[in-house]
């Protein structure tokens, strides 16, 4: 696999555990009818320091019920921190993905579903592949 | 009889009066969708609901009775005579009539 698929495999592997119970979907996935969930977008943004490396941002959209305050957003963000922040991942021998420090911003009512409130949790990452 | 019931009954009557202009279509409803992060594959379960509909613009806009479909946001497509249209926009939904913009 190449650096883009390796990055997907590394990051997605974190959500493929029984202890992660928050409904989680990737980008380009049908979400009609979901009430509370997170959507994982892996933005493979810029080139790395050598040919088979890259830098990017893991952008996670958090959707909760509208009108219930920020408490649940912070709860989910803290759980995401426990899962992601500062982690070093490797699903391919010799290649690693390193996750950095997170941030979160409110986005207001979801434009596609007024019953949901949305926030965006971001965390930078770097991938170092095998040449 | 309340006004809502009166309106619903008259809508049903109107759909009956236009005879074969109202056709049976199948609405495709996504009832469950899951993503497996291990295999990175998606699985969806679909249900279908057969209801009367009127083509306002052929292959572009279709009109349905709200009472027979429930929450229109749960549907992803319309099937008719072996062809499948994707629902791209809900043009009108006043609780009685739903008008959908569709495309193949």
Q: Quote the CATH topology of chain A.
A: STM4215-like
Q: How is the largest sheet of chain B built, in terms of strand order?
A: 1-2-3-6-5-4
Radius of gyration of chain A: 15 Å
Mean pLDDT of chain A: 90
Structure classification of chain A: alpha+beta
Please report the distance between the alpha carbons of the first and last residues of chain B. Answer: 41 Å
The sequence of SSEs of chain B as H and E is HEEEHEEE
Number of domains of chain A: 1
User: Which percent bin holds the helix content of chain A?
Assistant: 10-25%
Number of helices of chain B: 2
Largest two-chain interface? A-B, 15 and 13 residues
- The dominant shape of chain A is elongated
Beta percentage of chain B is over 45%
Broad shape of chain B: globular
When the domains of chain B are counted, the total is 1
CATH second-level architecture of chain A: 2-Layer Sandwich
CATH architecture level-2 label of chain B: Beta Barrel
Which spans of chain B have pLDDT < 50 for at least 5 consecutive residues? none
Broad CATH class of chain B: Mainly Beta
Task: Give the gist of this structure.
The complex is a heterodimer of chains A (131) and B (104). With 131 residues, chain A is an alpha+beta fold.
Q: What does the model show?
A:
- The complex is a heterodimer of chains A (131) and B (104).
- Chain A is an alpha+beta fold.
- Chain A has one domain (3-128): STM4215-like (2-Layer Sandwich), CATH 3.30.2000.20.
- Chain A has helices spanning 3-15, 71-84; strands at residues 24-26, 37-47, 53-65, 88-92, 95-99, 103-109, 116-128.
- In chain A, strands 1, 2, 3, 4, 5, 6 and 7 form a seven-stranded mixed sheet that branches.
- In chain A, a hairpin with a 2-residue loop joins β4 and β5 (95-99).
- The model of chain A has no long low-confidence stretch (mean pLDDT 90).
- With 104 residues, chain B is of the alpha+beta class.
- Chain B has a single domain, classed as Thrombin, subunit H (Beta Barrel).
- In chain B, a hairpin with a 3-residue loop joins β5 (83-93) and β6 (97-103).
- The radius of gyration of chain B is 16 Å and the shape is globular.
- The A-B interface holds A 8-9, 12-13, 15-16, 24-26, 29-33, 113 and B 30-31, 33, 35-38, 40, 42, 44, 73-74, 76.
């Amino acid at each position: 696999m190449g650096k883009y698929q390796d990055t997907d495999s590394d990051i997605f592997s974190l959500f493929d555990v029984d202890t992660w119970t928050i409904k989680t979907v990737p980008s380009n996935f049908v979400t009609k009818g979901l009430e509370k969930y997170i959507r994982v977008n892996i933005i493979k943004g810029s080139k790395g320091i050598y040919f088979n490396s890259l830098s990017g941002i893991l952008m996670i959209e958090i959707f909760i019920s509208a009108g219930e305050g920020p408490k649940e957003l912070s709860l989910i963000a803290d759980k995401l921190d426990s899962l992601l922040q500062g982690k070093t991942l490797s699903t391919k021998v010799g290649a690693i993905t390193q996750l950095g420090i997170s941030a979160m911003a409110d986005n207001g009512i979801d434009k596609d579903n007024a019953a949901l409130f949305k926030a965006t949790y971001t965390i930078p990452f770097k991938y170092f592949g095998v040449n | 009889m309340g006004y809502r019931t009166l309106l619903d009954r008259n809508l049903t009557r109107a759909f009956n009066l236009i005879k074969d202009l109202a056709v049976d279509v199948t609405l495709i409803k996504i009832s469950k969708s899951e993503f497996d992060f291990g295999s990175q594959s998606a699985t969806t379960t679909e249900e279908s609901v057969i209801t009367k509909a009127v083509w306002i613009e052929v292959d572009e806009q279709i009109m349905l009775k709200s009472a027979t479909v429930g929450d229109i946001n749960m549907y992803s497509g319309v099937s008719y005579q072996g062809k499948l249209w994707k629902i791209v926009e809900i043009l009108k939904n006043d609780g009685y009539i739903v008008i959908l913009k569709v495309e193949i």
